[in-house]
């Protein structure tokens, strides 16, 4: 059977013989052939097509097995089985890459399995298939449908008229287009006129759609062609298509029109669509009107109105239209008593529509946020985009927070790898990520920058246990459970050689740096070293003891040393030259899940179920460092320069470890409530890939929410920090204040005669103020002391300028005092009692007492003010926003934080940190963020508007002794008893644009062009 014969067979026009192996020969059309041949029990007839032919031959070989069981009525197959077979064969072709035969076959098989193995109750197989493609419940995607009228000649049988239904569904997260694709509808039994009309409709009404449109036309009045149409002739459906596409765009914009103006099922639009969008006449109106049972409104081309009007009974209302837009408006015109009632209500109250519209929009926005929360753990990027759509409807703090939450997770893509256990590996050139499912045996290559799928292959009957790229990127090694390891071309995933055979399932593979050697380990604990070029063993198998306990292997870059680990908790080093054990580095009752060498081969890291990551010097075999997760370590990977080690864990986080400072670098990568089973770090260190238990691989940006530069050294163990208005950072360190130019890495020092307790910079940036033990207040300008206050016995630990820069407030030793900012002379006597701290913002002066916060003004600081009752026994710190409108306070020991409105004294927010006491708070300059530092080195950053954490806690060395946001909010300085760290937060001013850039989507609904 040749290619043309197969095409004709799908179209139903090729003569066939039940008993002819090549299906060519005796004269029955395809429908008769299936009724006769398949109905007579010869269900294996089509499988006798010789393999190795065209894709269509293979597809047809699958048809009986897929469709025959689903379309039986008793023992007789119904005609819709044949129609559905043709339809889905064409649809499978149209959504597949025409250049990749294997991928098309897999797409076809997956389509059939998902569409028909688990049909949705109460829905046809077509809708089940559409629901699968949309990856969501059928009720959640934008859908539109309208009745259509046909006058066709079907398979030689004259039909006076047919009434059908045109349905479509919009899948927003797929590339824009139509499925079936008009350009490939030769396989779908559509003539040129229909394809032309569909292309015109897409150009006119589909141009604004951002996603894939899945559509179907089903007959509702003919028994012969009940269900999907076997063949579509003529362009008369193009106007109905334009309307449905336009309706999808309107519905996707979510409730931009009132629901009662939507079209009803008793409306039909007919007429051919011209290139300019106007309607052209079509024939067969007599048959169409006859078939229009149950239809009440018929929209026709303007020039045909009079002729059609004479044919229609009184119950059928005919409306004329000049263009497809006009036809759409006619179809949407209100025509029910509900609309009349609604119109009367609108006339009675001119504002009613606005109120109703606002309520409907608010409900839609809230529904999108609920969907965002539901998607958060599965796909945070999707959750962020749903929040952007909600923001486009109503700009609420909840929507803004959910967009920010996506950005600050640093997640950049979620790859749909559908498997419970996944192995991953980056290519050396940083462009590709390989993922493989252990259960499914599917191996995929992804573009590591865009997250797009590049190529896929499958290992039927085998599980993928391990992946390894050669250093030159020329080979990809795959460990398989079918007792083999295979070497693939990493661009096409085609085998380069015959499989490397083993005696038992292969668990792990590892290349040497030169790519000439490949190490494998099998289930019984045997390690083999292969000569890749010659495809043979380069040494006898190495059998580890006890047998079967070794499950993972790592080959040193030079290929002379092997590291093994496994179920017995041992990490062992082997000399491959002598085939002897060098040393057992660790042993215990835990399981070793990951072993990896640094690129220079000098360092080895291993981790497992004891929650620990141990790092050794390979030469001396001494332990260099031990890092800890909160649960089992599941994966390890070094960066190409060896300066960073990445780890994944069942504690639902991935972490980066700095191999120079031997501590965690940056904030943890949150798995959103899912175990992480594997990790890979791109060679440039900027992209981290994590495998999530139960499916999906996530790509993360490692640059944001990380420490910027090195730790600023301090000699004193309790430094304090504040930012200069121009972005420089002032650090109080012992009896010195260092003002750092952070980009240049240089600083200017101010030497105080005694220990500096606090430091502040005037709003104009011209004066630096410090407090000490004896001469309590000093003012510095141009590197010299400008003024010194009279000495007192008080020790002032808090220091703040007023908003206008005219006064300075100090607090400590249970009292507060106000000073002249120009002369450092006291303006008031010490006042208050039991004051534990103070803060100034705008005209608000906040004084922290044992269990309350008192609010005074900088104009009348000695006058008692309003009392905010915290409900705590002790307030450990207090801060005020720059505009003086918000007050934050912390209760140290229990980790509770509250935020109040300074004007109304109303409590707005409450936060709790359960890990450690809180002693330091700081608002960002725009008061949208609040940071809290703990005694165990955690910094929590909250979104003030909504009240949620923006990211997992930042971890710093030592306890936090001070916090300060930069004027722009892009940086957070954290003072600790080990030094000062500068964190880059990357909080966007416009989270909507950031979300749109992340999802690479632009539409008129939520993302600006």
From TrEMBL:
Stored CDD domains = WD40
> Mind listing the UniProt keywords for this protein, alphabetically?
Repeat, WD repeat
WD-type repeats, residues: 499-540, 553-584, 585-626, 626-667, 669-701, 749-781, 911-952
Q: Which InterPro entries match?
A: Quinoprotein_ADH-like_sf, Ribsml_uS5_D2-typ_fold_subgr, WD40/YVTN_repeat-like_dom_sf, WD40_PAC1, WD40_repeat_CS, WD40_repeat_dom_sf, WD40_rpt
PANTHER family named among the record's database cross-references: TRANSCRIPTION INITIATION FACTOR TFIID, TRANSCRIPTION INITIATION FACTOR TFIID SUBUNIT 5
Protein name per its UniProtKB record = WD40 repeat protein
Traced from the root, the source organism's taxonomic lineage reads:
Bacteria, Bacillati, Actinomycetota, Actinomycetes, Streptosporangiales
């Amino acid at each position: 059977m040749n290619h043309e014969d197969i095409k004709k067979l799908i179209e139903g026009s090729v003569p066939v013989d039940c008993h002819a192996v090549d299906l060519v020969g005796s004269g029955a059309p395809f429908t008769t052939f299936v009724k006769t041949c398949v109905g007579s029990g010869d269900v294996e007839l089509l499988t006798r097509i010789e393999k190795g032919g065209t894709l269509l031959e293979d597809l047809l070989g699958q048809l009986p097995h897929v469709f025959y069981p689903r379309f039986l009525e008793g023992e007789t197959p119904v005609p819709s089985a044949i129609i559905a077979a043709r339809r889905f064969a064409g649809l499978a072709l149209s959504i597949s890459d025409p250049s990749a035969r294997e991928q098309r076959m897999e797409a076809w098989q997956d389509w059939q399995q998902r569409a028909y193995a688990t049909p949705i109750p109460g829905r046809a197989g077509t809708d089940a298939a559409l629901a699968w493609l949309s990856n969501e419940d059928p009720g959640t995607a934008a859908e539109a449908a309208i009745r259509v009228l046909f006058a066709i000649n079907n398979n030689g049988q004259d039909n006076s008229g047919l009434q059908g239904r045109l349905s479509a569904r919009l899948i927003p997260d797929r590339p824009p287009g139509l499925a079936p694709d008009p350009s490939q509808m030769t396989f779908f039994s559509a003539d040129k006129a229909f394809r032309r009309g569909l292309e015109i409709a897409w150009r006119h009404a589909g141009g604004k759609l951002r996603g894939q449109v899945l559509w179907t036309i089903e007959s509702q009045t003919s028994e012969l062609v009940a269900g999907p149409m076997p063949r579509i002739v003529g362009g008369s459906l193009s106007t109905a298509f334009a309307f449905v596409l336009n309706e999808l765009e309107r519905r996707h914009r979510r409730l931009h029109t009132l629901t009662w103006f939507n079209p009803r099922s008793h409306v039909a639009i007919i007429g051919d669509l011209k290139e300019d969008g106007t309607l052209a006449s079509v024939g067969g109106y007599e048959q169409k009107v006859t078939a229009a049972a149950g239809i009440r409104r018929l929209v026709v081309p303007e020039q045909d109105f009079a002729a059609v009007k004479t044919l229609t009974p009184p119950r059928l209302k005919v409306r004329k239209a000049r263009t497809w837009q006009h036809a759409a408006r006619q179809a949407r015109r209100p025509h029910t008593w509900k609309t009349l009632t609604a119109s009367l209500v609108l006339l009675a109250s001119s504002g009613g529509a606005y109120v109703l519209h606002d309520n409907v929009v608010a409900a839609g926005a809230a529904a999108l946020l609920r969907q965002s929360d539901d998607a958060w753990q599965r796909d945070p990027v999707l959750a962020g985009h749903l929040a952007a759509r909600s923001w486009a409807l109503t700009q609420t703090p909840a929507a803004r927070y959910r967009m920010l939450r996506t950005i600050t997770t640093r997640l950049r893509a979620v790859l749909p790898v559908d498997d419970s256990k996944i192995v991953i590996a980056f290519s050396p050139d940083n462009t590709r990520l390989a993922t493989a499912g252990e259960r499914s045996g599917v191996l995929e290559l992804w573009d590591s920058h865009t997250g797009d799928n590049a190529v896929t292959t499958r290992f039927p009957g085998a599980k993928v246990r391990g992946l390894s790229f050669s250093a030159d990127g020329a080979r990809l090694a795959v460990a398989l459970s079918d007792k083999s390891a295979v070497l693939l071309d990493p661009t096409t995933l085609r085998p380069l050689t015959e499989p490397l055979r083993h005696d038992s399932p292969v668990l792990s593979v590892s290349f040497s740096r030169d790519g000439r050697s490949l190490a494998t380990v099998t289930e019984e604990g045997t390690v083999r070293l292969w000569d890749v070029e010659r495809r043979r063993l380069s040494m006898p198998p190495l059998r580890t003891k006890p047998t079967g306990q070794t499950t993972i292997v790592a080959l040193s870059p030079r290929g002379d040393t092997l590291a093994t680990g496994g179920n017995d908790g041992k990490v062992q080093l082997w000399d491959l030259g002598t085939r002897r054990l060098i040393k057992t580095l660790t042993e215990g009752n835990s399981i070793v899940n990951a072993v990896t060498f640094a690129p220079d081969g000098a360092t080895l890291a291993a981790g497992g179920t004891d929650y620990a990551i141990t790092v050794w010097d390979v030469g001396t075999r001494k332990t260099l460092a031990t890092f800890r997760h909160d649960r089992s370590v599941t994966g390890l990977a070094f960066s190409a320069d060896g300066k960073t080690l990445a780890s994944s864990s069942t504690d639902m986080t991935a972490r980066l470890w700095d191999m120079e400072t031997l501590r965690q670098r940056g904030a943890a990568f949150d798995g959103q409530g899912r175990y992480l089973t594997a990790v890979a770090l791109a060679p440039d260190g900027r992209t981290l890939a994590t495998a999530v238990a139960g499916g999906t691989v996530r790509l993360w940006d490692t640059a944001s929410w990380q420490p910027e530069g090195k730790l600023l050294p301090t000699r004193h163990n309790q430094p304090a920090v504040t930012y200069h208005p121009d972005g420089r950072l002032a650090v109080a360190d012992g009896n010195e204040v260092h003002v750092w130019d952070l980009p240049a890495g240089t600083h200017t020092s101010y030497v105080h005669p005694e220990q500096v307790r606090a430091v502040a910079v005037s709003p104009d940036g011209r004066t630096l103020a410090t407090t000490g033990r004896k001469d309590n207040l000093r003012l510095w300008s141009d590197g010299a002391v400008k003024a010194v206050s009279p000495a007192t016995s008080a020790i002032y630990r808090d220091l703040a300028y007023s908003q206008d820069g005219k006064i300075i407030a100090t607090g400590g030793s249970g009292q507060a005092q106000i000073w002249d900012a120009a002369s450092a002379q006291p303006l008031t006597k010490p006042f208050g009692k039991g004051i534990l701290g103070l803060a100034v913002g705008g005209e608000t002066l906040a004084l922290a007492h044992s269990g309350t916060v008192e609010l005074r003004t900088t104009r009348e600081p000695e006058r008692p003010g309003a009392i905010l009752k915290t409900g705590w026994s002790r307030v450990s710190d207090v801060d005020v926003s720059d505009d003086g409108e918000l007050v934050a306070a912390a209760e140290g020991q229990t980790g509770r934080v509250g935020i109040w409105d300074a004007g109304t004294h109303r409590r707005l927010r409450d936060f709790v940190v359960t890990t450690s006491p809180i002693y330091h708070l700081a608002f960002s300059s725009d008061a949208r963020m609040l940071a809290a530092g703990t005694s165990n080195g955690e910094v929590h950053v909250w979104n003030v508007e909504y009240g949620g954490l923006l990211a997992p806690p930042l971890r710093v060395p030592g306890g936090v002794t001070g916090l300060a946001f930069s004027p722009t909010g892009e940086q957070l300085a954290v003072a600790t008893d080990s030094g000062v760290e500068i964190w880059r937060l990357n909080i966007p001013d416009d989270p909507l644009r950031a979300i749109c850039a992340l999802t690479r989507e632009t539409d008129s609904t939520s993302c600006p062009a």
